[in-house]
Amino acid sequence: MFGSMNSSSNINYLSNVPNSYYKSFRSSDSDNSMNGGNLEVGYKRDFTKDSYLDFTASYNKWGMDNTSIYDQTSYYTDKTTSSYQRQLNNMNHHNWEFQLDYQNKINDNTKLEAGYKGTLGRENSPVETYSGQAESSAVFDNNLYNRFIYNQDVHALYATYSGRIKKFGYQIGMRGEYSKVNTKSEDYTFTSTPFQKDYFSLFPSAFISYSLPDNNEIQLNYTRRISRPWGGQLNSFMNITDSTNISFGNPKLNPEYSNALELNYIKNWENHTLSFSGYYRTTDDVIQSIRYLDGNVMKSTYENVAQTTSAGVELVGKDKLFKILDLTTTVNLFYYKLDGFSYLPAGKTTPVIGNADENFSWNARMIANIILPKSFSLQLTGGYNAKQVVAQGTQKANYMLDAGLRKSFMNKRFSLSINARDILDSRKQHTITYGTGFIQDSENWRGGRKIGFTLTYNFGNMRAKNNKQNKANDDSMSMPMGNEE
User: Within a domain: residue 477?
Assistant: First the structure.
């Protein structure tokens, strides 16, 4: 994979803080070049038609060279000041993945699955900054140099046993994980405070189902899951993209652990499926952004703030209409509670206090797949998230709309896809947070409208690869590990 990306932004400030500027203008320009690759080898051994051993090993490499320029002019009642910064960020990440899956269908009603997954991730990302009043006077700034080193190893073993006794179906499982994390954020003199954390966790799961007459089914499920912090949340280096809003990570973050109990009812018709779920979920060591005022500068970091509790119902409907339209509709209604917390920033004597808060919220999502004449197909995806409680405030409602159009040629060997993301330019986070001495109203976008084109050619006798067993995986989102906010 090779690619490049250019971006620019402008920030206008107005201030009535005593002894501060009354207005300021800050521009930023960024050039990125990216490259990456993946190599995978696999081996599968079939013992019988109902039992096999499947092994894969893969190596993934991803890198990005980034040059960012920040130029700011501030106006005071008696003077005008200017500052210039050029920042070079070289992100290098690679990881190995090993996975071994065993399956044995003992008879028509019972099955045993077991396996191992190991992920060994390595990152080394230096950042250099040149500062001055103007581009011509910019010199290397020792104080803003940083090299972030992030190593994470995760080893997991899992086993599940599933079966059916008349109308009862069941599956019980256990996953054990050992994780080891080493981080180091070095300054220009190679001085750093290495941080190491290793921990072992168990994740049991249980699923019970009962078949009712007329294509009805009831399910009762229990799962325990983990969500790990990503590298940008762990790096203590301060991000200077916005000199009045400085962000940095926390290497002492713990992963989030959640326990969920669900009761599901499923009804099937010929062209329709309805699923009704009631759930209760608790999450410990929730990772959220914490903000506080340091002089005239807003600072933000991440902290395991508290426990959250949510309970609600989820409705999922799948409908096939008029032979050309498939609709999947999801509506989630829930109560959410965030416990209070206290966080003491480094060098401060007054802690940041977060009061307990709760609210009722909901979200909805609809996916429409439409089969059109002449081998065209159209997909529309829309979603809405209502207002929700976050640490120190609330996140306002938001909505989104995506679309994709696909055309197939030559007996589906060729296909051309056009995808439009965030058509309404509405995929944003509007957050209002409160703290000692401030109220902050902020809106953040990720990318805005995007249009992509994909041309695909299928040849030979390649068959789609079966999805790997995910029992050894955690439930965290995959994100790059480097010097990012």
Answer: no
